[in-house]
Design brief:
The chain has 168 residues and is an alpha+beta fold. The protein has two helices and twelve strands. A four-stranded antiparallel beta sheet has the order 1-2-12-11. It has a four-stranded antiparallel beta sheet with strand order 3-4-6-5, with no helix packed on it. Strands 7-8-9-10 form a four-stranded antiparallel beta sheet, with no helix packed on it. A hairpin with a 2-residue loop joins strand 5 and strand 6. The longest helix is centred in the first third of the chain and has 33 residues. The structure holds FE2/S2 (inorganic) cluster. The site of FE2/S2 (inorganic) cluster has 11 residues, from loops.
Length: 168
Amino acid sequence: MALCQNRRDFIGIAFGGVATVGGILALGAMKKSWDPLPSVQSAGFVTVDLSLVAEGEMKTLQWRGKPIFILRKTADTPRNEQRDVLVGEKVFTLVVGLCTHLGCIPYYEEKSKVFKCACHGGEFDASGMNTFGPPPRPLDIPPFKIEGEKLVLGEEGMEYKKIMAKKA
Ligand code: FES
């Protein structure tokens, strides 16, 4: 009986250990896919090197606990003068990746160039404008600043203020 008890304890401890290691590995993998861009983080600011984003590429990173989408538009991606972030010749969409309906995280469908929300079928165009379904407004634009080819999230730069002024 004592042996059985010990064996059960051993199996319990071994299983717990495997589950813990598995959990840590899964968290590591999640972090890797969540923050694929090398970024520098300090005091609520995140600096991202936009020169690493290829044409047509969509990157997701985390800023203040929120997903941030950075999409570099291709020549055939529709433009939006009110919302596009221009860095030299390059054109980006920069938005908070939370659906403005109930906060689900949409995904970007490259083929249709649409952000789709799986929760209730909401859709946003490649500039983050709500185009279909229940979302009541466009995807939010986080405060940002452009320094050369660097994007600083969390600071209200000239480009951000211009976009906000056009919205008003
Ligand atoms: S949360 Fe996105 S459509 Fe409802």
